[in-house]
Automatic annotation (TrEMBL), chains A, B:
UniProt EC number: 2.5.1.17
GO biological process, one term: porphyrin-containing compound biosynthetic process
Record key words, sorted: ATP-binding, Cobalamin biosynthesis, Cytoplasm, Nucleotide-binding, Porphyrin biosynthesis, Transferase
GO cellular component terms attached to this protein's record: cytoplasm
Protein name: Corrinoid adenosyltransferase
Cross-referenced InterPro entries: CblAdoTrfase_CobA, P-loop_NTPase
GO molecular function: ATP binding; corrinoid adenosyltransferase activity
Species: Pontibaca methylaminivorans
Membrane-crossing segments per the record: none
Listed Pfam families: CobA_CobO_BtuR
Length: 206, 206
């Protein structure tokens, strides 16, 4: 690329200075800190990987954190092995699910597994030493009513310690959960390689 | 919750068995493996954290990987410290950007920094030992034309080793890049806590 001319460089600097001033003003107003209820939903890829990216950030800061996997028990997960082996002192990892619901075909068992996972989740959230608790794929348990939605939303409102972040992932987040959350991202599919016959690959999907 | 009745349990099992059979058939057809061009874009939170979640998965599998940060040099990043300190043998980490463009106000410097980051990115992608190369926030450099879009798209098509995943993050991904990608997720904002006066917090944003 060619070098910018003096005029181009000056116009660029003036424009960016204006953006910076506006942004600095905006950021000055943002002084609050609080533990967030974060919902990652939608059909696109990146919900659990984004949640694990935040767990990685917590580990980087030396914050105690915890993971409860609601429906992934049956699948191998690289991140579970790594976190358990290398960061087990900082991050409790509980895989309570029995695989996706179409694998088990047993409603009573699915409900019991989801209930046990939720009991563990409550225990971990109540422990205010945990700065982040990830409830991975809980939205699936809520969608199929293996867990009571009012109980989950009510617990987060009443008992989550003020500085604890709780991250809830899975597609089809219930509207009442979205209403109760502080941060909600919906992952939208623009392109998915499964459609082109590519299977789930280590390092990308698990 | 009450126990399911025998009829309810049987209906549930039959329905899930049907879903499982359909899913098993579908997954059998997905046998391909290839290195993907993955684009994570959109205004919502979770682009870089999702990318770092995939880096975490690569580290879990013991795959060599690499990160080039295009515009985040000026900001502290917990994940950079952790990866450098604990996984430096597996994951090269290059922070080449000079902060967001509105911080520098210097067009020639922004272009030079983006060009140096891209040169490093090409070197890392050409090294086929790397299973994943993350080009964090490269979309910003492409959007402001600090990098030549045709050069980037052409390089990925011509020189990316077949089994290497390249992940490109940042909002406003250019349409030509989306056209060239295998997997594209757009992160949509449903709710953002900055709007409620909450600042960027460690463990969540960095």
């Amino acid at each position: 690329m060619t070098e910018p001319s003096a005029e181009e460089a000056a116009a660029h600097a003036a424009k960016k200075a204006k953006i910076k001033a506006a942004r600095d003003r905006m950021m000055e107003e943002k002084t609050g800190e609080k533990g967030l209820v974060i919902v990652l939903t939608g059909p696109g890829k990146g919900k659990s990987s984004s949640a694990f990216g935040m767990i990685l950030r917590c580990l980087a800061h030396g914050y105690p954190c915890a993971v409860v996997q609601f429906v992934k028990g049956a699948r191998y997960s690289g991140e579970r092995d790594l976190i358990t082996a290398r960061f087990g002192d900082l991050c409790a990892f509980h895989t309570m699910g029995e695989g996706f619901t179409w694998e088990t075909q047993d409603l009573a068992r699915d409900r019991a597994a989801a209930g046990a996972a939720w009991d563990k989740a409550k225990e971990l959230i109540r422990d205010s030493r945990n700065r982040m608790v990830l409830l991975d794929e809980i939205n699936i348990a809520l969608r199929y009513e293996y867990l009571d939605l009012q109980e989950v939303v009510g617990f987060l409102a009443a008992e989550k310690p003020p500085m604890t972040h709780v991250v809830l992932t899975g597609r089809n987040a219930r509207p009442e959960l979205i209403a109760a959350a502080d941060l909600v991202t919906e992952m939208t599919v623009v392109k998915h390689p499964f459609r082109a016959g590519i299977k789930a690959q280590p390092g990308v999907e698990f």
